[in-house]
Amino acid sequence: MDFVDLRYKPEKNGDVVTTVYVESKDLKKAANEIAAESSVGTWTKISTMKERVMRNLAARVFSIRKEGGGAVMKIAYPVELFEDGNVPQILSDIAGNIFGMKGVDNLRLLDFEIPDKYARSFKGPEFGMEGVRRIMGTSKNRRPHIGTIVKPKVGLNPKETAKVAYDAWAGGIDFVKDDENLTSQTFCKFEERIARVLEAKEKAESETGKKKMYAANITASSEVMLGRAEFVKAHGGNCIMVDIITAGFSGLQFIRNQKLGMVIHGHRAMYAAFARNKRHGIAMLPLAKLARMAGVDQLHIGAVVGKMEGGRGEVLGIHKTINGKWAGLKPVFSVCSGGLAPENVPDLVRIFGNDIVIQAGGGVHGHPNGTRAGATALLQAVEAAVRGIPLDKYAKTHEELRLSPAKWSLGKQYSHRTKIV
Amino acid sequence: MDFVDLRYKPEKNGDVVTTVYVESKDLKKAANEIAAESSVGTWTKISTMKERVMRNLAARVFSIRKEGGGAVMKIAYPVELFEDGNVPQILSDIAGNIFGMKGVDNLRLLDFEIPDKYARSFKGPEFGMEGVRRIMGTSKNRRPHIGTIVKPKVGLNPKETAKVAYDAWAGGIDFVKDDENLTSQTFCKFEERIARVLEAKEKAESETGKKKMYAANITASSEVMLGRAEFVKAHGGNCIMVDIITAGFSGLQFIRNQKLGMVIHGHRAMYAAFARNKRHGIAMLPLAKLARMAGVDQLHIGAVVGKMEGGRGEVLGIHKTINGKWAGLKPVFSVCSGGLAPENVPDLVRIFGNDIVIQAGGGVHGHPNGTRAGATALLQAVEAAVRGIPLDKYAKTHEELRLSPAKWSLGKQYSHRTKIV
To answer: Which of B242, B250, B413 to substitute to test the interface with A, most A CBs within 10 Å?
Structure first.
């Protein structure tokens, strides 16, 4: 068992340490094979191996703790195994072939820790949360930002999209974003949409006297993303959205490396294809760390409440990790999203505090008086929550909040919350 | 249930059709939510919905068949939902948020079909299998290509790497590749490695009179990948490797779109993070189709035998799909890899036929007489398999094959096959 050394103590400045959950009929053999396959080994003795390679670059499993039907293992990888600033490369080591080995039945990457020096080889966010707050003028009054997704997800033309965005901003929303499946389809070509929405942004800013932000979804092949990002910049935009998993880290790092001077909003569609099953895949926590290393300024992390998966402990842990101090990488602004409505705001503020973006799509556009009223209702919910006033009390003097579709609302416009149209 | 219509017949030229496996306490409700979330819907009635959007762009679940603990569903998506030539965008629709919805317990994308016109909006492989065979001079003698991965996976310096590559080529190997976790670490910087290995390739070509190929692993952020690809080209290389999942489709399409005139070898580290669990995630078949659309010329598909997961039916199905006719997209050269040795060649040829690349790392460098003998043994195994001669018989007159480490070999140098060093 050349790759298992339970007496080994990892070096804080010398080792990347991963935590993995493993199921296998033979856990110790699996531990050996995992550490071999993800560092310098293969399945057989080879003539080309060098003694110095085994000594300097072999990964070591240094902890195996039985848990559930398997074991949680800790693996130390010499940091020399990794290329500075290359996110795909770290994945190919710590989250690569090992998932497909016959010797393991299930394997889940739960977390990783990296030496500060290696962490600093990544650019990290250009703006981070404080940079976004500076743009938006909320550095002092540190309330949660509120955002909306233009809905329906796809199908509106550029003019209709701009109208929805304008209504949301005029009603009090800070941040408007495209949905993840809207890029540049024939019904809503990118250039025309962006031009019109950014005009609407300027109008809303001049009317409200407040700074607004629009995340234009540029997700595509890298050269197309760059062209789109430059178009956004040329039209006065301050933010772009990259769907970081469907696009991938090569494209995300490329966009960050351009230093475009625009906030990068990270959507995470498809993450749950490998994060959902608790016994296999890659948890959201390591993905979120990689996204911070690559350089997203805002990142969807789940919401605990709402329509998307993710328990309180897990999602709060992700928030604290990407929003906390880390080797000089700027803190990421966490985005809570997915089936949220004004009624969820007090819970969100209680769970996460004020340093989050609260995003509601249906919860804004589903307001009986339309998008603008829905936006105002969401803002009112934030005002109430930040001041510690119960929503039902605040709703008595705030019409939009009172009419907002929710269990607590007086209106009760909706018999159930899953009806689509 | 606005998004479920069991009488709907999908249009071959108008719909993208996905096949998904779903587990949920309420399958019909889940079906509705999946089709809504992946097309135009959200969790509530919204003021901004347009009748034409629902009519023209809503996805429809048109088949629900109970299977295992859940159901296999078929979903039709109007092709207008998709942007031409954008792989990340199709994923954001058919494989995006739906994995994370609370309303489903498990969800697996099993397959998808797309209209030919939409398929043609993707570049597909620049060379494809026939292009690779043309470069290598095997268009007529259509034996399997044989490849090796330089081993140890990482740790050799550029000179040592070039020596291993040279030995492999001199022994009869067609194709040498970097391993997935080798990019440009301090012990083996990319530029020096590539320069030396390409020198070795030239030497081997001139000595053997045969064309050779080297897949230089360029995986990194897109602009770094392009710089590396151009370096390979400038030094006479004919192939680059992209780790397509860790890099992602945005970067892969970017590299393909450059028309570099070099074969793109697609490694798939990390695919099993979402393909392994049979009840959740994304199966390899749809990933392989996306890789073909994006434009890989060669793609790892598994091997049935060997150290990596993947049953016969599944892997053979992937091979036939990416190697068969499809809307003018060139056929991909399937690569079988992972714990293979000469002893596996007859099985591989029996299962897949001759139109594959058989790759062995440990199975070549593990030969008792070293890499060159291991390469020759692998070539001998292919010669025997193609001619239908049993290996043990062929081994009697072929020294290298006879000494190759394997169950059938006379030597039996290895007591077991999982020992690493």
So the answer is: B250
* Structural domains in chain A (count): 2
- A44-89, pLDDT tens digit by residue? 888 899 999 999 999 999 999 999 999 999 999 999 999 999 999 9
CATH code (residue B277): 3.20.20.110
What CATH number is given to the structural domain containing B94? 3.30.70.150
Q: How far is it, in rounded angstroms, from Cα A365 to Cα B249?
A: 33
Give all strands (DSSP E) within B190-293, no chain letters: 213-217, 239-243, 263-267, 281-282
Q: Indicate the SS3 state at residue A160.
A: helix
Same domain, B357 and B390: yes
CB within 8 Å: B185 and A280: no
Tell me the C-alpha distance between B34 and B405, whole Å. Answer: 51
B267 is catalytic: yes
Residue-averaged pLDDT of chain A: 94
Chain A residues whose beta carbon lies within 8 Å of the beta carbon of residue B312: none
B148: helix, coil or strand? Answer: strand
A212-258, pLDDT tens digit by residue?
Answer: 999 999 999 999 999 999 999 999 999 999 999 999 999 999 999 99
Residues B245 and B392 in one domain: yes
pLDDT at B406: 61
Mean pLDDT score, A18-33: 96
pTM score: 0.96
Count of beta carbons in the 10 Å neighbourhood of residue B37 = 28
Low-confidence spans in chain B with pLDDT less than 50: 407-421
B235 as an active site residue: the answer is no
Shortest Cα distance, chain A CAs vs residue B311, angstroms: 11
Contacts of A44 in chain B (CB under 8 A): 341, 362-363, 366, 405, 414, 417-420
> How is residue A191 written in tokens?
């250039």
Secondary structure of residue A33 in the 3-state scheme: helix
Number of cross-chain residue pairs from A and B with Cβ atoms under 8 Å apart: 439
For tokens 């970097």, name the residue: B178
Q: Which residue range is the domain that position B32 belongs to?
A: 15-119
Q: What does the pLDDT average to over A395-409?
A: 80
Among chain B residues, CA nearest to A311: B102
Torsion, Cα of B234, B238, B243, B248 (10° steps): 70
